[in-house]
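Readers of this paper often ask what the protein records in our data store actually look like. The remainder of this section carries one protein's record, kept here as part of the documentation.

:::
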Amino acid sequence: MSYLYQPVKKNLNKLVISYNSIARFATGSPFRTHHCINLRQLGWLELPNQIILQQLVIAHKTLYQPTKTPILTSLITPYHNLKHLCFSNKLLINITTPKNTAVDGLFSNSVGKHWNDLPADITSLASLPIFKKNLKLYLNNKWLCPCINPD
């Protein structure tokens, strides 16, 4: 699957069903076991979060190691704020204003939105393995399944 384009919702739903079935098979759990329990046992993220993780890893490589991803440096550009606001020390990505709804799902826009929503302590990590570990923990804790962890 290409991480540069957002998958169509219909295709994503088919992938999620397959992904959850593989997790159920790998854990050997019965069919009625909730998919979040299986994913937690395996240490996997839910599929939409896994796609976000891969996109943000690509963005991290582009921002911190631009020589390794020269093609993407034109798509992902850091935002330089001329005003001194509270988030001026945070590394942000420019988001182009879409002229139509088809552009909104493109890689540069979706990655920019996800990257800019991350806390500054994650985006400031220059080491890729530490970034991946903290990002996975963040994504795992941010979108907890309400069926398993009711508030």
